[in-house]
Amino acid sequence: MAGRKDVHTLIIGAGTSGLLVAQGLKKAGLPFTIFEQETLSTYQTRPREWGMTLHWGSSHISKCLPPSLVDRMPETYADPSLSPDAVAGLPVYNGKTGELIMEMKAEKPCRVSRRKLRNLFKEGLDIEYGKELVGMREEGGKVRCVFRDGTESVGDVVVGCDGARSKARECICGSDAAELTTVPLTMFNFTEKFEKEQALVLRERNPLFITSIHPDHGTMFWISIQDVPDPDKPETWTFQLLMSWVNNALPEDENNQEGRMKFFKKRAEEYAEPWRSAGRWVKPDTKIPMDPGTYWEKAAPWDSRGGKMTLCGDAAHPMTPHRGQGLNNALQDSSKFVSAMEEVASGSKTLAEAVAAYDKEVLERGLLEMQVSLKQTLFIHNWETLMESPMVKMGMHQARKEEGEAASQGLAKE
């Protein structure tokens, strides 16, 4: 095309956002190279797997994926046999009595598998595996990325899509400014299969997900469907279980498999059905990892070096998970970045102008949602503040500016 300027993008990270950026650039006919620090083998065999809630962000997928892959999106669903409008939201129960408190509304929510989503998004892409970023620098109007294996790559712009603990963010902002803040939150997040009748019981109230908050100690106990390889064989279904609470993390000498299982089983006994039985049915040898909650409290405008370096997805706005917004914002970031590169290619904006506009929108939206999600995390784990939490006030819809301001004020009072 006459006057077209093809900007070569270096994509760091082959997670959901990085893959979607690559697909969008490929669809637009723009050059890119995508790097993943995992090897081809470990990329496919990571032991941990979990689901994500896809709702308002689904509208950004078709911008980047070719129609043939958009049509196959049901392959990524936890239960492909469910229609996208099967549920209207997430039911929330009193964990002690089993009474329904409310339903957190969402826009056609569905659960997608992180692994299935990545496998669909990477189709047709040439990914360079085993490329761990160690540094990047400007070089004669370009940007050079350096990897631990000694290789280097030069492009016009680099976009860090390498997750919450992003090395790209550290390279752009400096290690201190890029540092994450740990929230006083503890999470057990794992998957389990159950016997046929047990699996049926766990999906009786909602085919996708249910959660409960225990009024005595504010612990949240979440159960969702993770994988349904055969709808007619419940014994083949995989569920995701998440138990989380604020403050009072396990003592160091109990933070081991035996201690975590003992704590989980004991606390599950305090719940109403079906959470109590779910806890009893978890096999003694099931691995229970323990994770903290983090977010980028120091997030501030970063120096893009004239549009040569930027961030996308969790690298740009890592947030706590209790409002289900991480995936949806990452999808919007990916779509926005591709649009920015199309503007550069068409000549309607310079690289510096396009990336500056992209950065401003991503940061403003990310700051807003990090605050709202943090308020959600802290408020739902306290029975006294539960009814003031964002899930009660606004459901799962995309946060608006005034809601972010309200969240900040609410956190200041805590």
From TrEMBL:
This is FAD-binding domain-containing protein. Transmembrane segments: none annotated. Residues 121-361 form the FAD-binding domain. Its cofactor is FAD. GO terms for molecular function: FAD binding; monooxygenase activity. It holds the Pfam family FAD_binding_3. Keywords: FAD, Flavoprotein, Monooxygenase, Oxidoreductase.
